[in-house]
Design goal:
815 residues; alpha+beta; Cytosolic phospholipase A2 catalytic domain; Ubiquitin-like (UB roll); Porin; 3 domains; 8-stranded mixed beta sheet; Omp85-like_dom
Amino acid sequence: MYDQDFKRTGHHGRLRNACRTALASGIILFGSIGAAAQNYPNGLSEDSVDPHADSLFFSRVRARMEVIRNTEHRPTVALVLSGGGAKGAAQVGALKYLEEIGMPVDFVCGTSIGGMLGGMYAVGYDSGTLEELFRNQDWDVMLSDYVAPSYIPYSTKMYNSRYVVSIPFDTAREVLDSRLPEGPGYRRQTFLGSLPSGFAYGFNVNNLISSLTVGWQDSLSFARLPVPFVCVATDVVSGKAKNWSGGSLNEAMRSTMSIPGLFEPVRSKGMVLVDGGTRNNFPTDIARAAGADYIIGIDLSDSKPGYDEVNNIVDIVWQFIDMLGGDSFQKNIRLPDILIKPDIREYDMMSFSPEAVDTMLRRGYAAARSKSDALLELKEILGAERIPPDSRAVNIAETGVRIGSISFRGVSGKEAAIISKLLSFGEGEVVTKKEVDDVMSKFQATGAFASVTWSMLGQDEPYTLEFEFVKAPAHNIGLGVRIDTEEWASVLFNFGLNTNSMTGSKFNFTAKLGQNLKADLHYSLEFARFPAINVKASVSRYKGVLGTPGDALTYDASYWTHKEMVYITDVRWTRLNFEAGLKNQYIDLNDNTHLGSVIEGALSEKALKGDYIGAFATGRLYTFDDFYYPSKGTDLSFGANYDFLKAGDPSFDPVLALSAGFRTVIPTGNRFAVIPGMNLRTVISTGSTTDSEGHIYKDLSVLHTNFVGGSIPGRYTDSQIPFFGIDNVMMADEYLVTATMEFRYNPVRKLYVSALAGIVESNDGGASLIREFSPDIWAFGAEVAYDFVAGPVKLNLHWSNQRKWGIYASFGFDF
């Protein structure tokens, strides 16, 4: 029978001799600090934010360990998993071997990825499920707050396509003079305090964790889990370790892997929690404090890197984590009875590629098997087999669960009413991860929240589904930069007030600085169920070159214009956009420029200046999955502009302009795509086409004139249609059509190579355009581009029958 007075030092044999040899070597190597030389409460190697709570937890776990000794008549075993990011795959491989030999595990603790894997193991998941977790995730998505484009509102897509930097912020005043207590919706309302504290807050990884832990998401002691569990985070306020032994399991696992810079810290009860590796990356001291008789540790740490091995931000971040947690690691590395250390030196914490994961799984298994003598000896001492837990958390990706009630935290009643409209299921229905992910993506895509998380409370069906929201900073600053061979350097600046709110008044100021200047003020009043009301005023100045039909020359031109608009639009549609309203627009084309004199002669003096009042409507169907290099989708647009009044000119006859555009992506394999496109625009004057002096098109101005060319639509005039074969822009007749065909190849991830062909045809009559169709311009081109995070870098070489050879280069987003 098992001796109840068993002590760790009371077992003999090869296993204990090996441990003593390792301990002696450790003393020689690391100096005179013995395993018992602990300076903190509960015998831990790092100070804790709550030693009292730790002590209560250790008492509960020791009591549970004692029950195992008394009922199963064997020693107890703890499993300790270090941090290491993607290298955690090796721990899963080692777990697989431990399960194959039937090794019991009575307590598990870990840090960072080891904390997450340990938490999954504690609620009943085995190595097979954890291996699927590593193999089947898109880790680029998982380590970000990415939401599929199909959920993003059209207005947000357009904003993101122009600004390389977007900084949300709040005003300097504290919420209610700082008298509100901290809670789910609390954020300090200072400008610097509202700036992002990490690349991602963990939207996708939170969703993953929540979907795997249903049934264990209430606040509870982790001593009650199927396998008692602790994970370690670091509180940057106190500088101490947070040993998660109770509370929210989801919050614990999320905080232990909050890698500084990659993930935002987790804020909880006055603590700001980051990756526990910065304090205790290998918490074997916790396993000992919990009363385990034997400790099996799986360590993923690297040897000290050389000069040539610290090359990028991942290496540097990992080195900082190692340095900060170095003292506790040197103490704790001596404590395991069996230490498993996979040989994965060529991988780092971001090595999530399928090939890397597969290799690390195999090497972790091999590392555990290399310790088979010690492990099998321990197994013989235990005299027991691993018994899978009686209960396992529900994985709602596999099994749907019934929802009894739905609640919202961190939002007002009015906001909750708006949010609830986004739900695709109701109380009493069975939901899976797919339905919850769909709703969460809708919430995240609103842009109104800094974070959105969910929990299913209760141990059995029906569960209470609780969504928790933290409001985003209300205001925003955007900055865009572009350099190209047409305008050289340009900067776009946006300042928005209340732009991240779900409803109410919003204000935006936007300015473009460069060769051509533009500024606009935009006020909108948004409602929960109705289209938004918009008032917008803008002023712009153009100075550059424009061309005329059939002329290879370009002419200097200069004009300025201002425009005022009142219109309605819907801001929440994701694939559709419409605008409809009234506008006033004034233009003044400088008649001292060459183009001014040409237009004055070809049209009339009235064409140079004018203040036009009219109505307009635009619509767009936009399903591209990427603004610059879509792999699928369609862009279909239309526009109508009807100017019915010209100030100071009673003889003015209304002018109608109609336009349409189409572009679609036809995938032809994983790397090839065919992208056809077409644009049409027509200008119709309702009156006579000549004045008393014989000038044709007497009521038309530059505002109504068709222009074609350049790379960005509407860059120089509202009516400009882009065409790759024409540098800058040129005037065209009243009926205009362009057609292009792009054959695009994507040889590597962000590199794109395209072959281009296109035609331009314009005519002064619609019937003539069709009957006498003969392209005025045909062009061919080749383009190479790399899609950097700050915007694409492009080089376009083209030839047209009218302008001959041309070259266009650019860097940055389009504006």
